[in-house]
Write a structure and sequence with these properties.
The chain is of the alpha+beta class. 43% of the residues lie in helices and 14% in strands. The structure holds alpha-D-glucopyranose. Alpha-D-glucopyranose binds at residues 82, 106-108, 154, 201-202, 205, 257, 275, 309-311.
Length: 424
């Protein structure tokens, strides 16, 4: 089994290839290293984030509130969809509202929020960053400053129904797309494969994974879009053909994470591409508990390459009580809180040592697979105009999946749209 430091090195190498954040953006370089003195004010604060699917964020807030009655935290739950969460946070920042104090930022939003100065730089010396997975730390950085503390990391996994595979005489989960297609041919009467294919950030993740898993890349290390390649075509064709052949049930075109999870838990799917958070929830779902496992995503010629996801904690520039906010972020990213969160939610921690704790490995047999997937994970482009990048991807891919354009037309259009957005 690869050690976490090997994984960390692998992930760093991958992340280091995407240097767009340093190259683009309108934000000017921060001259001095921020200190915690700049973060003043104590009192009640809020945490704004997407749906608390495990309920554990509220639980951890309750623990904090008991210990800090003068500095309580109120959870503000935003919509389920990543894009809608971003939209609300951006609107809030544009009106300089102090309603949100701590922001749960998706890893792909750091550059935009930092360059626009919607979030405050965090004092690096208040966090022992050497203890966190380097790839996760990098997702919270912009121009050498830390704007969001690494909290939860993420990588796509293949959830599969062990019982259905066994019944069909299949001894191991598929490692390649052609094995997946063959397995789907053997299991009748149930939808075979799904991911998140609605027109939102999840589609960008699923598309990027398909391209990377065919040996391609959406944007190369110099920031040049690279989707007019045979590999990108093979990746997108895997999804387009999946819908055409019925391997992917047609309703999956409306799936975001929670829709996909519900379909799997209803027993409607054999295979599902999903993030680690589903493990804990499906382990309680009556129809599938004890009957599923996870494997690395399959790819064109062998195991695929998942997309690096995750969420980090930042402080809104317009908020009051920033000193409380910093303490709260330190609490949420501490070893004990991250361990408790893994136990309660199965979300991937950012603290490296947790992956090696035998008790955790015993409780979560998926941890080694998750480690391997993180080792392979590829970041999405880091760009201040990331929202334009992802919108262009979503439009092109959605048009191909719904038959409004061919794969070639979609990729050619995307190639020309991405250029000005990623090469700044
Ligand atoms: C997960 C990932 C996040 C990604 C989102 C897409 O929450 O952690 O990085 O953008 O899914 O829906």
């Amino acid at each position: 089994m690869a050690s976490i430091s090997t994984i960390a090195r692998g992930v760093v190498a991958v992340v280091a290839t995407v240097t767009l954040a340093a190259a683009c953006g309108s934000g000017s370089k921060t001259k001095s290293t921020p200190t915690s003195q700049a973060l003043t004010g104590r009192g009640p604060i809020t945490l704004a984030q997407g749906k608390d699917t495990s309920g554990n964020v509220q639980h951890q807030i309750d623990v904090w509130n008991k210990a800090h009655p003068q500095e309580t935290v109120r959870l503000i739950e935003l919509p389920e969809s990543a894009d809608q969460q971003r939209q609300q946070m951006v609107q809030n920042a544009q009106t300089k509202s102090d309603a949100y104090t701590v922001l749960n930022l998706d890893v792909v939003w750091t550059a935009e929020f930092a360059a626009n100065r919607w979030v405050t730089a965090l004092p690096k010396n208040q966090f022992d960053l050497s203890k966190f997975l380097p790839a996760a730390v990098q997702t919270g950085e912009y121009r050498d400053n830390l704007y969001a503390a690494p909290w939860k990391t993420d990588a796509g996994l293949l959830y599969y129904r062990k019982d259905l595979l066994e019944k069909a005489g299949i001894s191991a989960p598929p490692k390649t797309w052609s094995e997946l297609q063959t397995d789907c041919g053997k299991i009748k009467g149930v939808g075979c494969y799904a991911g998140e294919f609605d027109k939102y950030e999840g589609l960008t993740c699923n598309f990027s994974e398909a391209v990377d898993s065919a040996g391609g890349e959406v944007v190369d290390e110099s920031g040049k879009p690279n989707v007019n390649t045979p590999q990108a075509k093979q990746g997108l064709d895997f999804l387009v053909q999946g819908f055409k052949s019925g391997m992917i049930p047609k309703e999956a075109i409306t799936y975001e994470e929670e829709d996909a999870r519900r379909a799997f838990e209803k027993g409607d799917l054999v295979f599902l591409r999903q993030w680690p958070y589903q493990w804990a929830l499906s382990s309680k779902a009556p129809k599938v508990k004890g009957k599923f496992d996870v494997a690395p995503l399959p790819g064109l010629n062998g195991p695929g390459s998942p997309t690096l996801g995750g969420h980090n904690l930042a402080i809104s520039s317009f908020a009051k009580n920033k000193a409380t906010a910093l303490d709260f972020i330190k609490y949420m990213t501490s070893q004990d809180t991250e361990r408790a969160n893994l136990l309660a939610s199965s979300e991937a921690p950012t603290l490296a040592s947790l992956y090696d704790e035998p008790a955790l490995q015993k409780k979560f047999p998926y941890l080694p697979t998750l480690k391997a997937s993180l080792l392979n994970a590829k970041p999405r482009p880091k760009a201040v105009r990331y929202n334009d990048v992802t919108t262009a991807i979503q439009e092109a891919v959605y048009a191909a999946l719904t038959g409004k354009s061919t794969t070639d037309q979609a990729l050619a259009g995307l190639q020309s749209k991405l250029g000005p957005l990623t090469q700044q």
